[in-house]
Design a protein that fits this description.
Layout lengths: L11 E5 L3 H12 L4 E5 L11 H16 L3 E10 L10 H7 L1 H8 L7 E11 L5 E12 L15 E3 L12 H7 L1 H17 L2
Parallel strand pairs: 1-2, 1-3
Antiparallel strand pairs: 3-4, 4-5, 5-6
This protein binds inosinic acid.
């Protein structure tokens, strides 16, 4: 496939985020595919919606229109089964308000602790077509806060693949073996490499 003249830096892409933890995870994943990534702060319109895929898609379109760069955006959330998927698309607000202890309180004396993280990565091509890639990690909410690493809900989530550790107790490399973000970005990277890297 030809490399678009609009995308002269095909091995360098931009990640629109203000979250340096996310950036540090993503930088390592994309490096596995020979793709470098730069963190960029773009004032994108982040719509409020129940569907994180729609949020990511619209942010990607806006970010591309603002910058004309090969730019990737991500939207993610924590979905707790017994709370019917809450906080989901409202994860960032819930984290800032009731926080980890608020979630543990909501699940006090609750046996069903099943939850998943979902990430949607979206990329707008020069012709305005947005490609989206999804990753999910299933696991459980712990009964206490565990670990100093990571960010957000990491210290209360343990993936089924490594049930002895929360994401907050893992190194970035360990979290990247299992995480929703790693899965979504690997899918994106496979696609991006096949289309844009000759
Ligand atoms: P965002 O809107 O994609 O930045 O993510 C919303 C919120 O979900 C973040 O503020 C975090 O609280 C939470 N979140 C998303 N991904 C993760 C993760 O990998 N670990 C822990 N919390 C996360």
């Amino acid at each position: 496939m030809p490399v678009s003249k609009n995308f002269p830096y095909e091995k360098l892409i931009f990640f629109a985020t203000e979250n340096v933890n996310k950036f540090n995870e993503v930088r390592r994943i994309l490096a596995e595919y020979g793709i470098s990534v730069a963190m960029i702060k773009v004032k994108t319109l982040e719509i409020q919606d129940d569907d994180i895929e729609k949020i990511a898609r619209i942010s990607a379109l806006n970010a591309y229109r603002e910058t004309n760069l090969p730019i990737v955006v991500e939207d993610a959330g924590l979905f707790i089964e017994t709370l019917k998927g809450f906080p989901g698309p409202y994860s960032s607000y819930v984290y800032r308000t009731i926080g980890l202890n608020g979630i543990l309180k909501l699940l006090e004396n609750v046996e069903n602790r099943k939850a998943y993280f979902k990430s949607v990565v979206s990329f707008c091509e020069p012709n305005g077509v947005v490609r989206s890639f999804q990753g999910i990690v299933y696991g459980e909410i712990t009964r206490e806060v565990r670990g100093e690493g990571g960010f957000g809900f990491d210290p209360i989530f343990k993936p089924y693949e490594e049930p002895n550790k929360t994401f907050g107790e893992m190194t970035i490399e360990e979290k990247n073996k299992f995480s929703h973000r790693a899965k979504a970005f690997r899918r994106f990277a496979e696609w991006y490499r096949s289309v844009y890297i000759s």
